[in-house]
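Sample intake sheet
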Amino acid sequence: MGKSKYELAAPPRFMIPHEKSDRAATGTIMISFTSADCAEVLLTKRFLWVHCERCPIRRFDDRPPVHHCSTCHSTKHRDDSKKCQGPRCEHCGDTKHTSDDHPEDTALKCINCGGNHTTRDRVCPARRAQNAEKKTSNSNKSV
């Protein structure tokens, strides 16, 4: 067998814990290449075959988890922090009711940015900014 034109920077990595892999119906595999050119060539193909299955491919988007306090829903601290100011509704930030009791006629208001969405919504600019800070710079392209 000849040498592959795709040079891997590391072995393919399954993005599911090993102990759950035998029960998973689907999964994600991250493949890192030694050069951006290798990744771009593979991305133009749009799919590859793995164990006789046609699998779609796409660029890996590194999105580290954003942690929220489970009591006040702030992204500025975790549950075990003394910074927590008590229970708040994650839908509007109100301290007079919980997320489970949020009135339907009350407008959404993000606790972290003040926007018209729930605190855990991925469109939150504060969440995106925090995500950008967490991203590590990686010179290898991944798909």
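Comment: The two ends are 24 Å apart (CA to CA). The first strand starts at residue 13 and ends at 14.
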